[in-house]
Amino acid sequence: MKSNIPAYLITALATGFVSAAPFEQCPSKAFLIQGSPAQMFGVDLVSAKTTVLAASMDFTTEANNDSVNAVGFNYQDQYMYGFSKQAPRSVVRIGDDYVLQRLIVNGLPDTNFYVGDIHVNSETNQAVYYLYHPKFGLFGIDLTEEADEYQAQLVAGSASWNLAIYDFAFHPHSNLLYAVESNGDLYEINLDNQTPTFIANLDIAGDTGANGAGYFDVQGQFYFSNNRSGKIHKVDLSTSPVVGYTPTAAVFTLGPTSNQNDGARCAIAEVKVTDNSIDFGDAPMPYKTALADSGARHLFDPNEDQSNLVYLGAVVDGENINTPADLQASPVDSSDDGVKFVTDFVAGSTSQIIVTAPNDNGYLYAWFDWDQNFQFDPDEITVSKYSLNQGDNSVLVDVPSDAVMGATWARFRVTDGSEANPITASGGVTGGEVEDYPVTTYGSLVYPSENGWVTLAYEDQWPFAGDYDFNDLVVNYRTTLIDKEGQAIGYKIEGELVGVGADFHNGFAVRLYQTIADDVDKRILRSQIDTSSINLTINGEIQSHSILEQGVEDAIFIIMPDTWDYADKQSSCSYFRTETGCDTNSKVSFSLTVSLQSGVTTIEAPKYTLDPFIFAAQDHYHGEFLVGQNPRGWEVHIKNQQPTEKFNSQLFSITDSDDASNSGQSYYFQTETGLPWAMEIGSSWAHPKESVDITHAYSDFRAFAESEGREKPLWFNNAKLANVILRGE
Asked: What is the pLDDT of residue 334?
């Protein structure tokens, strides 16, 4: 089929033009042309180092003020070819001086081309420059013999391909073209049958947009560069055509960003490390560590002057890890010295690491293989572009509750922060360092669940019934027992203060104590606590008050000495989140983590709810019966939970009280009819509004309480909505 598109002539502007010399060898660097006017960069695909090769790309007799695109490298004659947008639009040849030489080409439509590459037939040595436009199709220009004029031929049927591509590249060992659309769709184009074939949608992790530069190396690895992010992705297409497998993409390195972007590379050149200028990771196969696997790597001294280096610890050095075999031969990097692990990595807990930086120029990234699938998945990034200070930096790592127990790996990367987008766990970066470490994760027992809450609701009129609205203190609550090989080694207690409807001032505390039966309990003693490990935050701020209570045998943690010190009620309201129109304040969050000095058999350790209770705050009135008494001696616990050592047992004998506690029968904090002053509800609960009796908000509650829970077990799902503070209000 012959094109019926009128031919136009691209004329030589300089009579007697002497062509620039070709490139001396097949370069291993990728060429990248960006901007308008065009500039030429060299991109080292291994290290991500970008070098300006030509700040301007002019014609011999005039300046170039526009873009050059559709670039390809012809390794038959060692020249690059491209398409200049500057009038008159023309095919250009580029030699080692990066000057543009116009060529006379007939048969091209009068349009601008931005997709192109050169195919060299290794058997016949025929070199054809192909240009593609989605409206007009694919045109081939035979460059095998140098000529005064060249003829472009339209590839039959190509005008109907309608591919949304911005560059393509020829496979070095087949006659097939490959291209990636903006959404990651990979296409294989067979020129023999004029057919593009959809291969797969590559997972490019949201890195959408124009992929303006495509390259191959001699092993059949395909690289494509995203204009917007600068990320260069790699796809293993060593088997071509693609039959019997599904290609995948991985970020290989980072290049410069631009809205004008095209690239070329000598497709028969290797991509390989030949010295020790690059720092690689150490995580074993099948983690992405070696160059062949798009492994994490840093050109740690990009300026080659040992100045302004960014790294971790005391030293950084390089390795030559092109293949997994190289990694096996040298599995340990002695320069990995920048990260120290302070606490164990326990599912559902927060761990501390110390990261040492020699200056304040670094930005830290970290990944942990929590699911132990031998990959650093995108959702396993735990630290992202964290600014480091000179010296030791304390970094907290949240361990997911579903982290798999056992040996795994962590990867830390530090950069100078100049990257346009956050880096990934693989691929090359200019500057910085990568350090991999083996770590061990331990399990946990979370109650009620990783993302769930139980609700604790308290009445503070004990031993008198009061208004019985159960909103004097309302707390969302969750506990985690940290397990290491069958030994309890610590606890995490977290929650949210969601309601304070009390005139009295109450503190909130938790005792590491569990009642199993009337005469059986499990407890952690104060002497078993590693006091240096105690960490309590409220609304994200570290607390400095005396957290581990003194003068007691049991381990008791004072979360809030006075809840009113933390609940910020609205100015027009009397209470915190218990009145109509007064329920929009933020909840008050808290998190306590603590380690034991030595492990306790998990079976013997207290767990689940433990013993959360309220107590009278110091220096505040809490009823006539407490005047002249130590306020700490007043406590309210969940029904039938015995009080702590600090409790004043004489309070059980107050005249006219409504309390029917009987220590001989292990009855505590309940009325004669079994109604409690504190209770646990098995979900996040809508608590009663101020002065609304709980039985008026939940009509089934009385039957539940008086039957010891045998009747109406789901009483909390049957609320009178007008009488409660709804969840999330």
From this structure: 67
* SS3 of residue 649 by DSSP: helix
Write phi, then psi, for 526 (nearest 5 degrees).
Answer: -60, -35
Name the nearest CA neighbour of 604 among 488, 476, 525, 684: 488
Pairing of strands 39-43, 50-54: antiparallel
Quote the pLDDT of residue 518: 62
Among candidate residues 222, 262, 209, 214, the one with its CA nearest the CA of residue 70: 262
Instruction: For residues 103 and 80, give the distance between their C-alpha atoms in angstroms, rounded to a whole number.
Output: 12
Which is nearest to 679 in space by CA: 443, 429, 468, 399? 468
Return the structure tokens found at 215. 């390259």
| Terminal alpha carbon distance of the chain | 71
Q: Which of 404, 511, 496, 401 is nearest to 445 (CA)?
A: 401
b/e per residue 446-470 (b: at least 16 CB within 10 A): bebeeeebbbbbbbbbbbeebbbbb
> In terms of DSSP bridges, do strands 39-43 and 381-387 run parallel, antiparallel, or are they unpaired?
unpaired
164-200 pLDDT, tens digit per residue, is 999 999 999 888 999 999 999 999 999 988 889 999 9
Lookup result for tokens 């005008």: 159
Q: Are 132 and 115 in contact (CB under 8 A)?
A: yes
Q: What value does the mean pLDDT take over residues 45-72?
A: 90
Query: Would the CA dihedral through 698, 703, 707, 711 be positive or negative?
Result: negative
Query: Measured between alpha carbons, how far is 612 from 463 in angstroms, rounded to an integer?
Result: 18
CB 429 within 8 A of CB 413: yes
Rg from Cα positions in the chain: 36
CB-side exposure of 203: number of CA atoms within 13 Å? 6
Which residue do the tokens 């769930």 mark?
452
In terms of residues, how long is the chain? 729
Strand extents, DSSP E, 316-387: 339-341, 345-346, 350-357, 363-368, 381-387
> Tell me: the pLDDT tens digits for 100-143?
999 999 999 999 999 999 999 888 889 999 999 999 999 999 99
Indicate the SS3 state at residue 704. helix
Whose tokens are 């699938």? That residue is: 373
State the DSSP string of 117-167. Answer: EEEE-TTT--EEEEEEETTTEEEEEE-SS--SEEEEEEPTTGGG-----S-
Q: What is the pLDDT of residue 13?
A: 34
Q: What is d(CA 580, CA 583) in angstroms, rounded to the nearest whole number? A: 7
What 3-state class would DSSP assign to 395?
strand
Residue closest to 191 by CA, chosen among 126, 252, 110: 126
Q: Give the pLDDT confidence of 295-352 residue by residue, as tens digits.
A: 999 988 877 778 889 999 998 888 777 777 777 766 666 678 999 998 788 887 788 8
Distance CA 32, CA 69 (A): 10
Cis before 331 (ω within 30):
no
> 3-state DSSP call for residue 52?
strand
* Three-class secondary structure of residue 706 per DSSP: helix
What is residue 588's predicted lDDT score, i.e. its pLDDT? Answer: 94
Q: Give the whole-angstrom CA distance, residue 92 versus residue 80.
A: 8
Three-class SS of residue 705? Answer: helix
For residue 223, what are its two tokens? Answer: 């690289």
* Domains, in order of start, for the chain: 30-264 (2.120.10), 278-442 (2.60.40.10), 448-723 (no CATH)
Q: Which long-range contacts (CB under 8 A, 24 or more apart) does 238-247 make?
A: 240/171, 240/173, 240/174, 240/176, 240/188, 241/174, 241/176, 241/188, 241/190, 242/188, 242/199, 246/199, 246/200, 247/186, 247/199, 247/200, 247/202
Q: Do the Cβ atoms of 560 and 508 come closer than 8 Å?
A: yes
